[in-house]
Amino acid sequence: MNAESFAPIPFLDLKAQQARMGPALRARLDAVLAHGQYVLGPEVAELESRLAAFCGARHCVSVSSGTDALQIAMMAEGIGRGDAVFLPAFTYTATAEVPLLLGATPVFVDVDPHSFQIDLASLKARIADVKRAGVLRPRAVIGVDLFGQPADWPGISEIAARDALFTLDDCAQSFGAALDGARLGGAKLGGAPDATATSFFPSKPLGAYGDGGALFTQSDKRAALYRSLRTHGEGTTRYEVLRIGMNGRLDTMQAAVLLAKLDIFEGEMARREAIAQIYDAGLAGFVGVPARVAGGQSAWAVYSVLFTHEAARDTAQAALRAAGIGCAVYYPRALHQQPAYAASHDGVALPVAEGLGRRILALPIHPDLTDAQADRVVAVLRRAGG
Ligand SMILES: *Cc1c(COP(=O)(O)O)cnc(C)c1O
Q1: How many Å lie between the centroid of ligand 1 and the Cα of residue 76?
Q2: Residue 143 pLDDT greater than 60, yes or no
Q3: How deeply is 284 buried, as exposed, middle or buried, from its count of CB atoms within 10 A (0-12, 13-18, 19+)?
Q4: Which helix (H) or strand (E) holds 208?
Q5: Which residues contact 136 (CB under 8 A, 6 or more apart)?
Q6: Residue percentage of the chain with pLDDT more than 70
Q7: Does the pLDDT of residue 317 top 80, yes or no?
Q8: pLDDT category, 188, cuts 50, 70, 90?
Q9: What's the mean pLDDT in 39-67?
């Protein structure tokens, strides 16, 4: 073996991606430096129209982060005190943080043990729990497309419709993912629920060089509200303030970075899918590989495998680290087990979400990973034992 076979394998390699983009990125940045419109410059509008077309949504409103996208979407519905917002217990902290910031109550829902997505039977049960208790008003569902895979949006939408719940897709990890034609018109995520929020944090599938996010909706009324809310609740003129809003705009520089990355995005998605297939083929039966959501195309933000018990996971993690291979645990704890959120949980057991953190491990999956590197990850894991 040559020296290269033992070179470290980074979990994410944004420098390699930057080199691959070449002068196209610099040209985009130089254009912003030349016109000097750093806030709501022409690149912002260009990005919004390209992103809307990409995922088949009528409107795209870019914002300052994925978290702010969630917040603006919920502010636009007037969600607040007394409202129950259903969301998976196994997700990033922001999903639960936003309803709490607005005075609403997160109601944690269990997830599927194989795909890690929100569990529809648990969602139904949790809505029934809230109705039975009679304290909170069932108001919204934040479905999360976890790790790049789409959640079961047709299923979530059907359950939500029975109680007229607002459906918000937390697509922060999954921009570019899709559900198949028979179910959603072949659409990329962004077109189906009432609103879709995504993030352009650098490590997400489509990442900026700083914070950024976007909202997608088919509703003209919602899109207009989102534009107002992201600029301090402004009206038709800049100094007319119609509502309490926030400073939630995407910087022009970040829009320029994203435009350059959008040009290579489809190719990157294909590359991530190829890595996922190498992992599937090399690891299925040895560890639990992520179950594909039926009819879904994943954006593969994260490729997580499941071990049968914690010690096996810890051994594998140590072996990968010793071999210089990046890996990570998403998420060590379910959200209702976090000190900040425990007090807002009603105490109902969510056994899948509570157990996953001890057995899960995310492997490197990025577009600059070579087949040989993916093979080496497989080999190191197999040697470590399942
Ligand atoms: C990253 C992430 C967010 C927040 O996005 P930011 O752009 O970092 O604010 C929200 N939800 C989920 C599921 C995420 O992974």
Answers
A1: 19
A2: yes
A3: exposed
A4: none
A5: 82, 83, 84, 105, 107, 130
A6: 95
A7: yes
A8: low
A9: 96
> DSSP per residue over 3-64, as a string?
GGGGS-B-S--HHHHHHHHTHHHHHHHHHHHHH---BS-HHHHHHHHHHHHHHT-SEEEEES
Q: Do 58 and 267 meet the contact criterion of CB atoms below 8 Å apart?
A: no
Task: Say what the pLDDT of residue 294 is.
Answer: 84
Task: Give the separation between CA 86 and CA 127, rounded to whole angstroms.
Answer: 8
Coil/strand/helix, residue 118: strand
Domain ranges of the chain: 3-8+264-384, 18-262
Give the residue among 268, 55, 264 at the shortest CA–CA distance from 179.
55
Are the CB atoms for 92 and 331 separated by under 8 Å? yes
Residue corresponding to tokens 């926030």: 246
Does domain 18-262 match CATH 3.40.50.2300? no
Q: Are 183 and 151 in contact (CB under 8 A)?
A: no
Burial (Cβ within 10 Å: 0-12, 13-18, ≥19) of residue 135: exposed
Residues near ligand 1 (Cβ within 6 A): 65-67, 91-92, 94-95, 144, 170, 172-173, 199, 201, 211, 213
Give the helix ranges, DSSP H, for 163-251.
Answer: 181-184, 220-230
CA distance 172 to 214: 9
Domain 3-8+264-384 fold is Aspartate Aminotransferase, domain 1 (3.90.1150)
Distance (Å) from CA 94 to ligand 1 centroid: 6
How many angstroms from the chain centroid is the CA of residue 335?
16
Q: Which atom of ligand 1 is nearest to the CA of 173?
A: 15
Residue for token digits 């005075």? 103
pTM over 0.90: yes
